[in-house]
Specification:
Distance between the termini: 37 Å
Order of helices and strands: HHH
Largest sheet: none
Number of strands: 0
Radius of gyration: 26 Å
Strand content: under 5%
């Protein structure tokens, strides 16, 4: 890369290297942020699925929820939602 940048003045060469390094670092950090956001969305969808299942159970067994989180209630009564980790 140094041979390619030698056609520029040293200040421009340093600026191009810094911009390239910042862009590369930003892309690296962006992959972690994307993964974190995906996990958050998966947790939200899991909670929605638990609440639907709990609502179905509430029709047959009133008073089951008790004001807790839907997934925690399903875990408490032994009906776990399968989680898959990749």
């Amino acid at each position: 890369m140094n041979q390619l940048l030698r056609i520029f003045r040293p200040e421009v060469e340093v600026t191009i290297k810094v911009v390239f390094l910042v862009a590369l670092t930003s892309l690296y950090v962006l992959t972690f942020a994307w993964g974190y956001e995906g996990r958050q969305q998966a947790r939200q969808w899991r909670e929605v699925a638990c609440s639907y299942r709990l609502n179905e159970l509430e029709r047959t067994t009133p008073g089951l929820a008790g004001g807790r989180a839907a997934c925690a209630t399903l875990d408490r009564i032994g009906m776990r939602i399968a989680t898959r980790v990749q």
